[in-house]
Amino acid sequence: LQGQAPEAQRRREGDTLYIQCPYTNQTEHQNTKYWCLLRNRGCQEILRIYYYETTQQSKDGRMKINDDTTAKTVSITMTDLKAEDSDTYFCAIYKYYNTYVPLRTISLNVFKGEYLYPTQSQAFCSGNTFLILSVVLLLLLLLALLTSIALGVRYYQLLLRTGNREAEDTSDRAEGTVQPGSTGRRESSQDDSKGPAYINLDVQSPSSPEDPVYCNVEPSQAPRNPQHVEYAVIAFSQSPRTSRE
C-alpha cells in the first residue's frame, strides 16, 4: 500500500469523526470503496460499499460509509468515539488482485476528557505566585503613599515660603506709616551725608497725654521749653537700600 503520510486527527471520547475522501477518475464510481485499518501496509477491512449502494454501516451502528457518485466523494462517519478507537485508518478504492488505491489516510487519537486535578507542586506554585503578586502590589501601594506624602510636604513648604514673601512685601509697603504695636524700620537716602535719615515710629494706641513720646530731631530743631518730651539723635552706619527713596 502506497500513499501520503497520515494526517493527525484528535478527538475527545464521545466525539464524532467525519471525513471526506474525494476521487477524480470518471470510472472510479464503479469501483468498490473501503474503510480500512492500516495493517502490515495493507487493508484490514472495516466497511465496504459497492457502486450500486449509497450507505453501509457497522453492526454496532457507530461507523458509516457513504458514496456520493455525483460528487465523487466517499464520506466516513465515526460516532461515540472511544479511546480504543485510536489507530491509523484510510479510505481506499479497490482495483484488482488485492490492490487498493488509498484516497485519504488519518492517524486518529481519541483521548479521555476527564478532569485533571492539579498536583501538589502545581498548587504550591500557584500559591507562591499569588503571594508574590500580593507583595508586589503592597509595595506599589506603599510607594504611592510615600510619594503622595512627600508631594504634600513639599507643597506645604512652598505655601509657607510664599506666605512669608507676601508678608515681607506687605511690611515693606507699610513703611513710612505709623502702626501701633509694630517696630520701626529705617529709611534713608542714597547718601546719608546729603540728607536726613528717617525711621518709622510706631506708637502704642491708645496713649494718654502724660505718656512720653519719642521722636528723632536735629538739636537745632528742639524747642526751648520741652514738656514731657524726650529727644534722641539716631545715627545709622548701614548703607540704605537703593530700592527705596
Blueprint (SSEs and pairs):
Elements: E1 7-12, E2 17-22, E3 33-39, E4 42-49, E5 55-57, E6 63-68, E7 73-78, E8 87-94, E9 100-111, H1 120-173, E10 186-187, E11 198-199, E12 213-216, E13 229-232
Parallel strand pairs: 1-9, 12-13
Antiparallel strand pairs: 2-7, 3-4, 3-8, 5-6, 6-7, 8-9, 10-11
Shape: rod-shaped
Give me the CATH fold name of the domain at 7-111: Immunoglobulin-like
Number of helices: 1
**Helix/strand order, N-terminal first:** EEEEEEEEEHEEEE
Pfam families: V-set
GO molecular function: signaling receptor activity
InterPro entries: Ig-like_dom, Ig-like_dom_sf, Ig-like_fold, Ig_sub, Ig_V-set, Immune_rcpt_domain
Keywords: Disulfide bond, Immunoglobulin domain, Membrane, Signal, Transmembrane, Transmembrane helix
